[in-house]
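To whoever is on call:

I kicked off a structure prediction for a single chain this morning and the downstream step that reads the tokens threw a length-mismatch warning. I double-checked the sequence; it's 392 residues and nothing unusual in it as far as I can see. Pasting both halves so you can look.
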Amino acid sequence: MVRIVDLVGGNPYHSHGGGEMVIYNTNKWLLKKGFEIITVCFADKDFVIEKTEMGKIIGIKVPRNELLRIIVYSIKGSRLVKRLNPDILIGEGGGNMGAGILAALTRRKGTVYIARSHGTHMQLILSMTRKNLHMRILGRLMAEIIERYSYTLADYIIAVSRSTKKELIKHYRIRREKIRVIHNGVDTEKYRPLAKGKRAALRRRLGFRDGATQILYIGLDPFRKGLDVAVRAVDLLGENAVLNVIGTTEEEGRKFVRDEGIDEGILNKINFVGRVDEYEKIRYYQASDLFLFPSRYEGIALVALEALSCGLPAVVSGRVHADELARPGEGLFVVPGFDPKDYADKICDIISKVHKTDALSARARKSMLKYDWRLVSERYYRAISEVVRRGD
């Protein structure tokens, strides 16, 4: 049996962030295909979970300080990988930095190192119009030295989008033939539209005001994910629009609005939902009228794919890259730049065509069916199998 060790950052079994969801789904399906999967992550304490849907999970205790966490995880993670003696080592997220490098340098002969890129730190830095000292120093250090070296060491690279592949070639001068693009997927059985009758009942349960346009935003990093743009856009829509924000608590949201210099009068049109589990997140997709995501940087935004799979029209920035999977205008609407008025105008245009809502929803849903995780995982299986055959 081929043993795969996946070095990741946070625990993908208990987190529903975009990167963690990608890791969870691909490893789950690779396990079903007969590979032995061991996922290594950092944690508040050491732990081992022998059997999960995605295989074995090993947690490594690390400090909370970001720099110390990288150092400790790199040392402990690389030592653990050496003991586990995998046929294939995958590095991504936190594991794709120091831990991936040390593990790749100390691997046994014959172990293949695959780096999975969910986006590059260099492009993240360049995409942010406002950078603090921490971002400039630590971010550039990771990009210029650590991340570049990690990708250079890799035998193969899987990029989650064509845009990410272009970034790897442009910023790190990685050879084109070394990179394979496998787009993220979505569980279309789980993320699906509700029947109209059930949807009305769900809107009542969630406390949606009758007659109001319910706009959904999801993101844990408010500035990078463009929450300021979303708030200002909704403010331009009049009193009948409500922005439901998942991933930000009310306390965090109010502070963000103040820090961004936004008129706090807008707060009566914003519902800060906070963190929710996956079940509740899906309920919000199914009950909302529109998804708004003006993110400043993404490798490819999983939340946009989830929205479309639920039949929810999505208005996104050009840096979300969902247009690599769905055709703009068919449920997906891409706005260039970050002018709130442009987003407000696009939302108004969609709302005005209420007679086309069902058709938009159907096209949005249809665009995601070919990116169901079962099909995407098959592409991962073929890629990994090809690596194994080359090793033989």
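Update from on-call: the warning came from a stale cache, not from the record. Cleared it. Sanity check on the structure: The chain is about 45% helix and 15% strand.
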